[in-house]
Amino acid sequence: MSVTDAPTDRIPLTAAQEFLRMFDAGPTDGPFGPLYHVVGAWQVEGSLDLDLLRRALYDVVARHEALRTVVVRDQDPPHQSIQPPTQPRLTVRELSPTGDRQRQIEELLNEVEAEGNDVNELPLVQAVLGRFGEHDSVLMLNAHHTAADAWAMDRIAGDIGACYRDRSAGKPPELPETLQYQDYARWESEHLASPAADKARAYWRRTLEGAGVTTLPTDLPRSSGIPKETAWHRFRIDADLVAATTELASKTKSSPFMVLFTAHQLLLRKLTGVTDVVTPTFTPGRGHSRFRDTVGSFVNFMPLRTDLRDCATVGDAIALTRRVCVEAYSHDIPFMHLMAEAPQLMVPAMDEHRQVGAFQALRSPHMMKAVEVGDLKFTKLWRRELSQPAGSDVPDGILWTLHLGPGTDAVGSLGFNTNRFTADTMSDLLADYLTVLRKVVTNPDATLGSL
To answer: Its domain of life (predicted)?
Structure first.
């Protein structure tokens, strides 16, 4: 349906939505453009009834208001507008049962990711079903990022399975009630006026005093006039390197993310000569456990400052990163409010010859193992190694994403704006990172100078 219909309500924007408005580039680019979306894939084993699947898709759109919510940006004040549920599009693609299975899945996923998802056409989630045979399918979901984040995508997939199960049993879906994104908007407004939020603001004011985000030189200036696309360079991290990372994390009472992030900070130190390194990462941004199953765009932008000047060894750097992470995550606050305490933070990223990068490592808690859904079995597909020249949009900058799956190895991706960097530069950057990571995990007693 079109969003030209009269809105049914006026709900204040969340801080995450206000953050996206900072990068608003209209209907063709940026966070409100058709390529700012998130995709996911799930293997489905068993005989799948397409009519029941369509009904389950509709049920999920009816269940989660965020999937049919418009961010009204051209009225004062901007607000959320919830619309009635409509049927999501389901496209069926036949795949070859004798061909390279993983290659076909990744090629189709890249196609789905390259397709637009118009924020002005509801609902904001669409589905593609790739079928290898009557009992062997892959369900792919494409949701606009203003409506869902990676965490929410897993919740959506789980609810599709539950609704399908109930529909196949001849009864309406019987899912527990869930809080809506508008509930979160109201809770967040109250929380940001609380003493806990004041304490978080004071923490960031102290922590980021005098800090500026660390940037890398670009191949092309922002003013080059070249049309922007976001390319994705995907890669694999060998099992031995993953095992060494996990082992070092255990020995240092850290998480694998902390070790991986330390290597990234040391790489930036090596490339830029900057010792006071500031890199953004992301938090789930859900604020309270009651919103764990709420569908919406919650993910929060959070800068981590690691001043490496007093670190003599790699082990010192890991200990610093651990301390920084523990403190920062315990003071999570929407980036818009954090910026008010450190207005100088993003100034370096405004240089037309430089660009900032964000770093994240993901391990989904949902559906990493096969889940029985009536006569079906759902399994999340997390492995992607096939690069693509244009995919989901990164509004501005470089995005590192490492996926720590249930296997012994790991995969990752580098998303970058092609009007700022060349593919060769990104390949070199990745090679440098893996080199530093291997040195970090094999010799944590090494001096930083040896890197």
So the answer is: Bacteria
